[in-house]
């Protein structure tokens, strides 16, 4: 199975770049359940679709990124998985270095 470079942002603010399996199962393993995406021109942020219902902790750093950079009016909870924007065929792309740098600075 192919892998993809991704950024994982935990609710406590820790974040790390890693290679994960580029599959639904690989993404679900990171967020701990079904995935829901917040899509933008520079990135896609995946979180646990049922996170609010199950009481996962807020993820302030990922929420701020989604609001400031992606222009989404959302509050994200649980672990966030960030990859690049979809390509012309709708496939996820590797996380951009500019996104990684944003998290290093914040």
The oligomerization state is single chain
Distance between the termini: 33 Å
| Range of helix content | 25-40%
How many domain units?
Answer: 1
Structural class: alpha+beta
What does this structure look like?
The chain is α+β, with helices and mostly antiparallel strands. The chain has one domain (3-105). The chain is 28% helix and 26% strand. The chain contains 4 helices and 5 strands. It has helices at residues 24-31, 51-54, 60-68, 97-105; strands spanning 3-9, 15-21, 35-39, 44-48, 80-83. It has a 5-stranded antiparallel β-sheet with strand order 2-1-5-4-3, with helices on both faces. The longest helix is centred in the middle third of the chain and has 9 residues, at 60-68. It starts with a strand and ends with a helix. The mean pLDDT is 94.
What's the arrangement of secondary structure elements?
Elements (H helix, E strand, L loop, with lengths): L2 E7 L5 E7 L2 H8 L3 E5 L4 E5 L2 H4 L5 H9 L11 E4 L13 H9 L1
Antiparallel strand pairs: 1-2, 1-5, 3-4, 4-5
Summarize the model shown:
The protein has 106 residues and is α+β, with helices and mostly antiparallel strands.
Could you list some keywords that capture this structure?
106 residues, alpha+beta, 5-stranded antiparallel beta sheet, 4 helices, globular
């Amino acid at each position: 199975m192919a892998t993809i470079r991704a950024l994982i942002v935990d609710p406590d603010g820790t974040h790390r770049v890693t290679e994960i399996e580029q599959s639904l199962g690989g993404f679900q393993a990171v967020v701990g359940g079904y995935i829901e995406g917040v899509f933008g021109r520079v990135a896609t942020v995946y979180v646990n679709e049922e996170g609010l219902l199950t009481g996962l902790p807020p993820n302030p750093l990922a929420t701020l990124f989604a609001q400031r950079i992606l222009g989404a009016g959302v509050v994200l909870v649980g672990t966030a998985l960030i990859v690049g924007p979809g390509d012309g065929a709708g496939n996820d792309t590797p996380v951009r270095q500019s996104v990684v740098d944003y998290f290093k600075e914040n």
